[in-house]
Write the structure tokens for this entry.
Amino acid sequence: MKTRAALFRSAGLPLEVVELDLAEPGPADVLVRMAAVGICGTDLHQIKGEWQRPTPMVLGHEGAGVVERVGAEVTGVRPGDEVVLSWAPSCGACADCARGRPAACVPLHRAIGAGTLVDGTTGMSLDGETVFRGTATGAWTERLVVSERVALPTRGAVPLEQAALLGCAALTGVGAVLFAARAGAGATVLVVGAGGVGQFVVQGARIVGAREVVCVDPVEARRETALGLGATHVAPPEEAKALLRRVAPDGVDYAFDAVGDPETTALALRFVRSGGTCVVVGLPAAGARLDLDPAEFNRREKFLTGTMYGSEDPAVALPLLLEHVRAGRLDLASLVGPSYPLERVNEAIEASLAGSPGRVLVRP
């Protein structure tokens, strides 16, 4: 079958909207008509040339849509169901999947590096040439064939443009607080970065009942958004030290680096109290290295850890997040930014690179 998609060929070149050949669904696959796909930092790393993946490639993984067709073995969804894409389906065989952490699945990450699905195929081509998939998904397209394990039903709980945010940013950001740090009521929290993921880290801190939530970001509009989501204090990076000396003079209980740059990780770790925890949430550019002072860990007994996709199985975490949405504890609507049709995907990318305070969406 045919589908229109945004094709990435190389950093520095605009994406092209082309008509691809898409393989028919297999017995365990579903065909999804995409409705909205967010532009994630993972996509931007590749667009900026900070990661190297095979090309040509269809980027995009944070999406939602409607099931159009299912294979004979599919039981979890049916045509007409609204679904969120999970880019981390379980291979079901490795040690990480066995412990309920499909986002750490080794075959999955090999597939991501190779630009394929977990089974090594892509199911996409252009004039006979293989087209690769970003983050084992490739969602900047009108229609997409994925494994049943990728298509998580929402039961119509939220509009599709809001549901798209659940596919990556929300699961990652809220999950970092709930499942990676396991922060609790009364905690003091620092969030470095108020982009798409950082905004959900702030909400995660509010959901668990954090006493103080300090958010640091260079963009004023993002800081204002963070205040509306539950941050108690905000500041640009150059004012973080003075603010934290006043709010948390002994350091915060938990710090979250939602950017992933070595400088932002160092900032987050610096302001953690003795015995506190720093969680690296954002993904760095390829080759980035973190310079650490061992005294932070032995003399001050700090903990430094990372999280991938919220440190929980998406199939388990998504229903929990939807319950928070239904209860009014998790806000999606105000975080939806400008949306662009597929033909204007390059404008969407520019808006995201410019620091849009809301999640920029592509509407295939």
Residues 169 and 197 are 5 Å apart (CA to CA).
